[in-house]
Design a protein that fits this description.
The chain is of the alpha/beta class. It folds into two domains: 234 residues, 3-Layer(aba) Sandwich (Rossmann fold), CATH 3.40.50.2000; 154 residues, 3-Layer(aba) Sandwich (Rossmann fold). It has 14 helices and twelve strands.
Length: 402
């Protein structure tokens, strides 16, 4: 089959699909990934074809305003408009199947309607409404089973609002009659359109009230290839006890100086060595027992750490859990509080510290408490028994045969 994986967002929204794509490629399929230009090297390194979906990077948070929901909505709407303009040209006529991430799924049905190319959802978060928990972008306080489901439906309506201009423009370019997001979504649900979810049930068990066709197959790990840790990192690891990794991924741009100083003070206060991964924040420090680094494969580094301070993106949360590395969750926005709470609930993390409340004193206390996250090894053992990519490949082939 000729398969197009369409996804967009920050690095954590793209990397898992390189592993999924590599698995499909190994199974004999022709796989392309449509995403932003900046991720073309990562896609091609995995041996996958690349299609340009958008040029820019999605900045989910404006510097200095990590909790501004209006800014988040504005940023999301502008980014979605760009995706919508690039989506049509990314889909070639001989494509057999589209796999759609949560960011591209609201646009996919319109391409299917115009071209006849079938599409499957391939999501990294549990976005379908459920009574088991509130929507992943709505905080962590349960509203009860009825309230959670109602909030989940409301969250989908908010997604419809963000995507409405892009959907309108896309349908016009495809010569399709006007149609609203809720109408299309209800049609997809009535048809029982399959959605594969690339996360572990060790963190989020499949909700019992989900409809048939919503499958949880296990985590899709980024393509690793033959990468190794730099010698400088190997030397640092060998020079003392396991360090704590501090990373905020694509979050906290413009906050690097403050966060770096805060992290160094907390690590010293807890008597720990540390590795600061620069990321979008630009973490850096020149201090004894502290190593600043750039992009590194978490699969290789995290198993050799004493823990990890992170923003709780879906990918970093899964990587920490898989490695058995206890987390200090510092969620910033979007689905990050959800994953922070999940790690804490299964005993793989200490109590989360909201980003806006992060201080050196609170981080020091949390670092000292890392040994109390005793559930981390059990979660890691469960995840080690999973093959999310293999399960997804089998599911795709089965669904296309049916």
């Amino acid at each position: 089959m000729k398969i197009l994986i369409a996804t967009a967002g920050s690095r954590g929204d793209i990397a898992p699909y390189t592993g999924l794509g590599a698995g499909l490629l190994a199974a004999g399929h022709d796989v392309h990934v449509a995403t932003q230009e900046e991720f073309a090297p990562m896609v091609r390194t995995a041996g996958l074809g690349f299609r340009a979906l958008a040029e820019g990077t999605r900045r989910a948070v404006e510097p200095g305003r990590p909790r501004d929901r209006r800014a988040l909505m504005r940023s999301a709407a502008a980014f979605v408009a760009e995706i919508g303009r690039g989506f049509e040209s990314a889909v070639e006529a001989d494509t057999d199947l589209m796999l759609l991430s949560a960011t591209t799924a609201p646009l996919g049905p319109h391409l299917t309607e115009a071209t006849g190319i079938p599409a499957l959802g391939a999501h990294l978060q549990p976005n379908a409404p459920t009574g088991a928990f509130p929507p992943v972008v709505a905080g962590t306080r349960s509203l009860g089973r009825f309230g959670n489901r109602l909030a989940g439906r409301f969250a989908l309506r908010m997604v419809d609002r963000v995507y409405a201009p892009a959907v309108r423009d896309l349908r016009a370019r495809l010569d399709l009659p006007p149609a609203h997001g809720p109408e299309i979504r209800r049609r997809e649900e009535r048809a029982g359109r399959p959605v594969l979810h690339g996360f572990s049930e060790a963190l989020v068990p499949r909700p019992a009230d989900w409809r048939p066709g919503l499958e949880v197959v296990g985590t899709w790990w980024p393509y690793l290839g033959t990468r190794e840790l730099p010698q400088q990192v190997e030397d640092f690891l060998a020079a003392g006890p396991p360090p704590v990794l501090v990373t905020f991924g694509s979050m906290a741009a413009g906050e690097g100086e403050r966060l770096s100083a805060l992290a160094v003070e907390a690590l010293r206060g807890a008597g720990l060595r540390g590795i600061l991964q620069s990321g979008a924040a630009g973490l850096a420090a020149d201090a004894d027992g502290i190593l600043p680094v750039g992009d590194l494969p978490h699969e290789l580094l995290l198993p050799r750490t004493a823990g990890v301070v992170h923003h709780c993106g879906a990918g970093t949360s899964a990587a920490a859990a898989r490695a058995g590395a206890a987390s200090v969750p510092v969620p910033v926005t979007a689905d990050q509080p959800f994953w922070a709470e999940r790690l804490y609930r299964v005993g793989a993390a200490v109590a989360p510290i909201p980003f806006a409340e992060l201080t050196a004193a609170r981080l020091t206390t949390a670092l000292r408490a890392l040994p109390e996250a005793t559930g981390a090894p059990d979660v890691a053992a469960r995840m080690a028994a999973e093959d999310g990519t293999g399960a997804a490949v089998k599911a795709v082939e089965r669904l296309m045969r049916d």
